[in-house]
C-alpha cells in the first residue's frame, strides 16, 4: 500500500516540476540545449524529462533554482518549502548576486543594525 502512495506522489511531483520547468524556460526564453548543459545531460535526455517520460532528481532542482535565480520551491508549486516570506526571499536572491566583498559588507551592516535595535 505504501508503494502505491509513494509512486503516486513521485508521479505528481514530477508532473509539477515538469510544468514549472517548462513555464520557467518559456518565461526566461531558455533553450533545451542551454538547460541540458546546466544539468550535465544531453538535450534528448532533457526532452524526456520535459515530456514526463523521465523523473527529476533533487540535484536537477537545485541547479535549476540556482541558474534561474528562483527559489527551489518555485519548481514545486503546492508544496511549501520556503521557511520565510517574500521579503526574506528577495534578500536571499539579492545576497546571492553580491560578490564576496559585498556579502561581507552587508553582513557587517546587518550585525550593526541588529545591535542598534537591541540597544
Task: Please characterize this protein's 3D structure.
This protein is mostly helical and 119 residues long. The chain has 2 domains: 1-80, 434 Repressor (Amino-terminal Domain) (Orthogonal Bundle), CATH 1.10.260.40; 83-119, no CATH class. 71% of the residues lie in helices and 0% in strands. The protein contains 6 helices and no strands. It has helices at residues 2-27, 32-39, 43-51, 58-68, 86-97, 100-118. α2 packs across α3. The radius of gyration is 18 Å and the shape is elongated. The mean pLDDT is 87.
Number of domains: 2
Main sheet specs: none
What is the level 1 CATH name of the largest domain? Mainly Alpha
CATH homologous superfamily classification of the largest domain: lambda repressor-like DNA-binding domains
Topology, element by element:
Elements: H1 2-27, H2 32-39, H3 43-51, H4 58-68, H5 86-97, H6 100-118
Quick overview:
By secondary structure, the protein is an all-alpha fold. The protein has six helices and no strands. The model has no long low-confidence stretch (mean pLDDT 87).
What features would you highlight for this structure?
434 Repressor (Amino-terminal Domain); elongated; mainly alpha; 2 domains
Amino acid at each position: 500500500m505504501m508503494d502505491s502512495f509513494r509512486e503516486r506522489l513521485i508521479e505528481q511531483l514530477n508532473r509539477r516540476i515538469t510544468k514549472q520547468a517548462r513555464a520557467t524556460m518559456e518565461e526566461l526564453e531558455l533553450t533545451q540545449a542551454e538547460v541540458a548543459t546546466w544539468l550535465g545531460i544531453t538535450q534528448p535526455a532533457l526532452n524526456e524529462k520535459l515530456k514526463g517520460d523521465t523523473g527529476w532528481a533533487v540535484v536537477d532542482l537545485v541547479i535549476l533554482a540556482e541558474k534561474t535565480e528562483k527559489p527551489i520551491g518555485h519548481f514545486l508549486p503546492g508544496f511549501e518549502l520556503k521557511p520565510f516570506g517574500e521579503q526574506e526571499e528577495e534578500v536571499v536572491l539579492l545576497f546571492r548576486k553580491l560578490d564576496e566583498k559585498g556579502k561581507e559588507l552587508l553582513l557587517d551592516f546587518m550585525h550593526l543594525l541588529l545591535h542598534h535595535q537591541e540597544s
